[in-house]
Task: inverse folding
């Protein structure tokens, strides 16, 4: 009897330190995500014009053909995007991590660039290349007499989305592949497995946590993304419907929030499903730090094939950036395969003002990224290593940020914090730290998924060994868990950082003055007028280079730290 | 280098001093950097001691921002195109009234009152609506440059026209309302749907339209004039014309209630309306029609003058009250009948175009009747202009007491009405074509 009670107690008990961490994270999520979002979203549960609670709005959702059609379109586009993104990402990930390949790091960085498509200009550049009167179609029409509808309808959305979000899979799978111990591969080889069979039976299953983390992010992100459908003018998908309703019909209309609520529900379901697939399987390996898989030398034929495949994929995924670069040097580019002329004037116009934008972007995005990996790492640890009550709720709450439209979060912040003032009368919501918090909340899911996948690959027996040798929990985390997770943490930081750097919707609501504005806001200001297109593209190129340099630097750090660990072994 | 440092130092000192005297004037605006930068420079040069702080938000976000922050307002001015936004702000008591000291300003531009009768907001520039096209695009596709709204119904423009959704763009909403008031409710919607059948896309923001035409993704766009003028000034190969049923409306500025720097806000409004301020509008990147008639003396060759140009005098008398009474209904109707039904509408239109082409030169009364029926089906409306302002419908949008159904239910009903009519129209047109071939 007593034993039973103690057993149950132990199961639900946790160290005071862990309790404190849970409470801190819960308070953070409550204050900067749930409460602000709830101040807006509760409208979904009220009757319009009154404050009576009701569920009739959800009934309306399923009775409205447009919404139901949008729902299924979103499911279709997200699923197909995962398939295509996998096809783009896997070859790059495998070639750069499993083979001795010149420029692997460069490819990892370049393969990452699609995520940092700056708002508006990225869209213009894509249209200029692949639109119905873009370079490719104008040339096709001129020489072969037909056009290809790359950017038309739902399949256009799939095309652009898989180019845009495949880095999620690339990053997470590459990181997983690096963590696999070469002993597993050698054992399989000794038993006679090789080639594709080795990959299918041993390597890919071991990289599964990373793949699922990436694939579920792609699914959810495509499901919740509104920028790309809007750029292609596809309106019958769920996220654009939510956005269009919230921003055009107004804050009092419940249907926009009903759609947001459904977006959140589907996102959480997808995340839960990706976790459920993993349940009951063991992906961790005990041996660590061997510098990952052995890198094979490629034979001549293989090398040609590999370089060919990599070049093809990179050319395709980087085409928007090539378009952006052309646009930034163009004088006029209208209904022609290439610009009429080239100039440096666009850069001349932005160079003076861009330094302040660059500085702000670096500060905001790196702070946001830092907050994200700290929170993401802590939540991943709590979920996977403790039995503390409410740990799954933390996970879900953090992930729901994916589905809350930026503009809803922005308005929620104003509602919650504009009335709260500092002693000198400045509203709390006008401080730029609020923008940092909004950015970190919006990008938390990325870092969380990356940390989660990294943690899944660490065998718990390593920590138990450390504890048996007398280390306490804190020391174990610091000396064992953190170093082993470093790759995942950095991957999470890079994703959060680079996507926060080009975030616009919440920024637009919260930014108070030009001197505090990040680069995305500068872009927005330029891209509202015909004369601003070139300078906007120039600023976009600066943003891309800025984030790419930071990404390259962190890849460099990952590679070096892993080499160092390998050497120590 | 030393000289540069000295200049920088001097300007830094000047700026610090400036803040000490007139202070910072904070303006929330939907205008782009190309518009605000020249005004900021001219204002600060003409009024030493003041600094203009620009916060760029689109019109809707700006209105929401002012609404959310009214308890502790930090904004001095609201500056945007769409008059509706100002009506909304005024109705919510978010604006302060003021009498500008500038004299010699007209009361009306075209047939539109320049200023709010109660002095809450002021027109500083005029804008007319019209049709913009890409010269290279229409040449490559062998299209004629359109002049009137009704020209855009012609089959040659099928899949070449773009427009912003009125629910997404205050200026486009006024264009739609102008057509409805100029041609009447039923005929106006007929025109809109016939033109809609030729749409390539419906854009979700105003600037999306000139952007698509400038880059050549679309051939023809329905836009506000300055988008075309400033694109021409930037060197894009685009043309523009005002159709005869159109209107000019003022773009406005207003002082926000409880402005932290109310005096500074007044100084800026007076500057904007004065001649030096109005001349900034003629800059190549701005190209809006000044409200001050005297400024046109300095305008470049070929710049339209709404006070002298006969086209503008003939423009329709725009009823602002009617427009605001049915604004939500018109926006939602447009979205449900055109924007979200575009594929169906285009399919029906294409079938009608094919049947009409086959009918040319033939005498087949039966086919002719079928085509006329198809036209009538496409043009049919779920309700008339009186019901559009009836409380049964408007209250569904505001959540008022007289509603008989929720907004989502109305939307579903209208969408079904449109989808069924378009499908029936397509069937009739195909039947006509079968008779003719």
Result:
């Amino acid at each position: 009897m007593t034993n039973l009670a103690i057993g149950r107690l132990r199961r639900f008990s946790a160290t005071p330190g862990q309790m404190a961490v849970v409470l801190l994270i819960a308070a953070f999520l409550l204050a900067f995500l749930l409460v602000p979002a709830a101040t807006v979203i509760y409208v979904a549960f009220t009757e319009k014009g009154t404050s009576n609670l009701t569920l009739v709005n959800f009934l309306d959702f399923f009775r409205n053909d447009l919404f139901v059609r949008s729902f299924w379109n979103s499911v279709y586009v997200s699923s197909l995007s995962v398939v295509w993104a996998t096809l783009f990402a896997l070859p790059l990930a495998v070639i750069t991590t499993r083979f001795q390949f010149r420029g692997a790091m460069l490819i990892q960085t370049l393969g990452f660039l699609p995520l940092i498509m700056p708002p508006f200009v990225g869209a213009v550049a894509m249209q200029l290349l692949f639109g119905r009167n873009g370079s490719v179609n104008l040339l096709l029409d001129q020489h072969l007499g037909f056009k290809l509808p790359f950017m038309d309808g739902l399949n256009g959305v799939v095309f652009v989305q898989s180019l845009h979000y495949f880095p999620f899979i690339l990053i997470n799978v590459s990181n997983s592949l690096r963590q696999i111990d070469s002993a597993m591969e050698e054992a399989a080889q000794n038993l006679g497995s090789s080639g594709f069979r080795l990959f299918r039976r041993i390597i890919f299953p071991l990289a599964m946590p990373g793949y699922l983390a990436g694939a579920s992010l792609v699914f959810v992100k495509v499901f919740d993304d509104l920028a790309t459908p809007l750029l292609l003018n596809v309106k019958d998908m769920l996220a654009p419907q939510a956005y269009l309703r919230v921003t055009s019909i107004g804050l009092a209309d419940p249907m926009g929030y009903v759609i947001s609520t459904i977006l959140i529900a589907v996102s959480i379901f997808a995340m839960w499903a990706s976790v459920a697939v993993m349940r009951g399987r063991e992906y961790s390996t005990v041996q660590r730090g061997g510098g990952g898989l052995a890198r094979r030398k490629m034979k001549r034929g293989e090398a040609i094939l590999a370089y060919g495949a990599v070049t093809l994929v990179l050319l395709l995924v980087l085409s928007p950036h090539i378009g952006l670069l052309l646009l930034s040097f163009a004088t006029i580019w209208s209904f022609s395969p290439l610009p009429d002329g080239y100039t440096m004037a666009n850069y001349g116009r932005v160079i003076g003002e861009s330094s302040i934008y660059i500085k702000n972007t670096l500060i905001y995005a790196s702070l946001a990224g830092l907050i994200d990996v700290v929170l993401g790492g802590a939540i991943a640890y709590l979920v996977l290593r403790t039995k503390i009550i409410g740990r799954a709720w933390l996970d879900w709450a953090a992930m729901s940020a994916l589905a809350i439209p930026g503009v809803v979060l922005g308005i929620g912040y104003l509602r919650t914090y504009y009335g709260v003032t500092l002693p000198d009368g400045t509203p709390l919501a006008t401080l730029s730290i609020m923008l940092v918090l909004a950015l970190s909340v919006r990008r938390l899911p990325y870092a969380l998924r990356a940390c989660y996948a990294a943690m899944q690959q660490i065998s718990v027996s390593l920590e138990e060994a450390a504890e048996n040798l007398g280390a306490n929990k804190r020391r174990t985390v610091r000396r064992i868990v953190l170093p082993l997770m470093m790759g995942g943490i950095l991957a999470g930081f890079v994703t959060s950082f680079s996507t926060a750097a080009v975030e616009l919707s919440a920024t637009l609501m919260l930014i108070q003055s030009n001197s505090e504005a990040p680069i995305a806001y500068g872009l927005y200001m330029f891209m509202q007028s015909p004369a601003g297109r070139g300078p906007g593209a120039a600023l976009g190129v600066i943003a891309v280079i800025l984030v790419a340099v930071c990404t390259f630097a962190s890849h460099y750090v990952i590679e070096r730290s892993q080499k160092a660990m390998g050497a120590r072994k | 280098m030393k000289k540069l440092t000295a200049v920088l130092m001097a300007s830094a000192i000047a700026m610090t001093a400036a803040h000490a005297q007139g202070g910072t004037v904070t303006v929330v605006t939907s205008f782009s950097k190309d518009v605000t930068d020249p005004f900021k420079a001219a204002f600060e040069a003409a009024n030493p001691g003041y600094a203009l702080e620009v916060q760029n938000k689109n019109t809707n976000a700006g209105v929401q921002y002012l609404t959310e922050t009214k308890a502790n307002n930090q904004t001095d001015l609201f500056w945007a195109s769409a008059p509706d936004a100002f009506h909304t702000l005024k109705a919510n008591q978010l604006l302060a009234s003021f009498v500008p000291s500038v004299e010699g300003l007209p009361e009306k531009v075209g047939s539109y009152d320049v200023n709010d009768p109660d002095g809450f907001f002021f027109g500083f520039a005029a804008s007319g609506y019209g049709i913009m096209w890409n010269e290279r695009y229409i040449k490559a596709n062998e299209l004629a440059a359109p002049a009137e709204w009704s020209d855009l119904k012609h089959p040659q423009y099928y899949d070449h026209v773009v427009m912003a959704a009125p629910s997404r763009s205050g200026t486009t909403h006024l264009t739609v309302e102008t057509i409805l008031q100029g041609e009447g409710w039923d005929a106006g919607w007929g025109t809109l749907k016939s033109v809609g059948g030729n749409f390539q896309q419906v854009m979700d923001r105003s600037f999306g339209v000139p952007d698509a035409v400038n880059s050549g993704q679309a051939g023809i766009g329905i836009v506000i004039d300055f988008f075309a003028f400033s694109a021409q000034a930037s060197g894009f190969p685009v043309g523009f014309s005002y159709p005869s049923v159109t209107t000019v409306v003022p773009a406005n500025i207003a002082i926000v209630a409880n402005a932290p720097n109310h005096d500074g806000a007044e100084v800026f409004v007076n500057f904007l309306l004065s001649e030096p301020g109005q001349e900034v509008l003629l800059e190549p990147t701005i190209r809006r029609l000044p409200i001050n008639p005297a400024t046109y003396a300095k305008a470049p060759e070929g710049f339209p003058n709404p006070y002298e140009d006969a086209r503008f005098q003939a423009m329709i008398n725009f009823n602002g009250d009617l427009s605001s009474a049915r604004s939500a209904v018109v926006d939602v109707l447009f979205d449900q009948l055109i924007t979200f039904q575009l594929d169906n509408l285009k399919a029906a239109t294409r079938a009608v175009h094919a049947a009409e082409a086959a009918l040319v030169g033939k005498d087949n009364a039966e086919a002719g009747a079928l085509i006329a029926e198809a036209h009538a089906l496409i043009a049919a409306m779920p309700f008339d202009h009186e019901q559009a302002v009836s409380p049964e419908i408007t209250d569904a949008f505001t959540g008022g007491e007289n509603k008989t159904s929720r907004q989502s239910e109305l939307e579903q009903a209208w969408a079904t009405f449109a989808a069924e009519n378009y499908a029936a129209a397509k069937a009739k047109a195909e039947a006509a074509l079968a008779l003719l071939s």
